């Protein structure tokens, strides 16, 4: 087996063992639009995210957008299918048959220099509680989104990515980060109780920092309702079940801060 192909497969197996795969799969589902990797296979996008980036390209692909790979940068390898044309004996028709996979070297955007990419120029407003994210060493960046998601917290990269300037989305992801600190580790994937805690916390934080969330209360209810159904609870019962844990999350985020509750 090709050494690089073997390395790719071993990377996947190791991530399965460590439990990192579910988050990578979630992110691979929503690639950055209009980048070469958004047309890759799901497996290759997962490998890209596991390598620590949301944008990876071949050496020549980076040159076409006036960026160059830094000296000494290490490549990440993806799998490229190789086909061979064969003739069906019974019909004489030509068909393509998968013969093997080869590895192809790609480089992370973080390992390149040059002109800014379009998505790198996105700006976020001065978010409330951003200082707390900085205190925890969490980088907060803007990313292009699509209709399927508005943001995420990546524990492996200690990063919050936002595809919207909406403070409530930031509060939701900050709650995930705080919940991780409270518990020591988050469960992989979209765990219903973790999502309910994050959304309940984001609503509370909005009120505490003086943001009026009347227009989004219905959206939050539907969000919580969807996850409550998965654990066979009403939204009210689900919120009551996680109230104590939510309190710990809020206390950690607001530690050292004067709380002035605004009317909803």
What does this structure look like?
- The protein has 264 residues and is an alpha+beta fold.
- The protein folds into two domains: 3-114, no CATH class; 122-254, no CATH class.
- It contains ten helices and eight strands.
- It has helices at 3-18, 21-28, 42-50, 59-64, 130-135, 167-183, 192-208, 214-230, 235-241, 243-254; strands spanning 56-57, 67-69, 76-87, 94-108, 112-114, 139-142, 151-154, 159-162.
- A three-stranded antiparallel β-sheet has the order 1-4-3.
- β3 (76-87) and β4 (94-108) form a beta hairpin.
- α7 (192-208) runs antiparallel to α8 (214-230), α7 (192-208) crosses α10 (243-254) and α8 (214-230) packs across α9.
- The longest helix has 17 residues, at 167-183.
- The model has no long low-confidence stretch (mean pLDDT 82).
Secondary structure layout:
Blueprint: H1 3-18, H2 21-28, H3 42-50, E1 56-57, H4 59-64, E2 67-69, E3 76-87, E4 94-108, E5 112-114, H5 130-135, E6 139-142, E7 151-154, E8 159-162, H6 167-183, H7 192-208, H8 214-230, H9 235-241, H10 243-254
Parallel strand pairs: 6-8
Antiparallel strand pairs: 1-4, 2-5, 3-4, 7-8
Helix pairs in contact: 2-3, 6-7, 6-10, 7-8, 7-10, 8-9
